[in-house]
Amino acid sequence: MKCPVCTAENDASAAFCAQCGASLTLPESQHPPTPPPVPPPPERMGVPLAPCRLVVAGQTIHVPLKKEAIIGRAESSGTWKPDVDLSPFGGKSEAGVSRKHAKIVWQGGWMIEDLNSTNGTYLRGQRLPPNQRTLLNDGDVLLIGNIEVKFLAQ
């Protein structure tokens, strides 16, 4: 059975797409629009790592310039801290932010991946399936727990 969202082939008895997690039982009119294709890894594209930043509550956070950056909240004991810590912006556990909530990944373009967080990561109003990378566009708004985060690609 072909997925109406990502067009991946699935077993005829599957209820959800093995590739993107979309329901295979919904009428096509109820499926979200087809996501843009995932770009190939940067080593095949020859595209160097590009800086990005996040805006939270009017404050800019420069994401560390590396291929993967964890977004979450620091442990209260101070023994672990994510690359992008939302704790100072109200990103405590009661705000729905996990310690290791999501990560931003460079693959010739910036991608977001929910790390199987309890309260989910939302992009453009859609909850992202866990452990699946989705392309970020400049100006995209994410919801990480209850914290609104704007992604800026430069």
Description:
- The protein starts with 41 loop residues before the first helix and ends with a strand.
- By secondary structure, it is mainly beta.
- The mean pLDDT is 84.
- It folds into two domains: 1-34, no CATH class; 38-152, Tumour Suppressor Smad4 (Sandwich), CATH 2.60.200.
- The protein is globular and about 50 Å long.
- β10 (141-144) and β11 form a beta hairpin.
- The chain is built from one helix and eleven strands; from the N terminus they run αβββββββββββ.
- The protein has a six-stranded antiparallel beta sheet with strand order 2-1-11-10-7-8, with no helix packed on it. A five-stranded mixed beta sheet has the order 4-3-5-6-9, with no helix packed on it.
CATH class of the largest domain: Mainly Beta
- Tell me the series of helices and strands, N- to C-terminal: HEEEEEEEEEEE
Distance between the termini: 40 Å
Largest sheet: 6 strands, antiparallel
| Structural class determined from secondary elements | mainly beta
Rounded to an integer, what's the Rg over CA atoms?
A: 16 Å
DSSP helix fraction: under 10%
Shape: globular
Number of strands: 11
Mean pLDDT: 84
Percent strand equals 25-35%
Structural domain count: 2
Strand order of the main beta sheet, please? 2-1-11-10-7-8
Instruction: Please count the helical segments.
Output: 1
Low-confidence segments? none
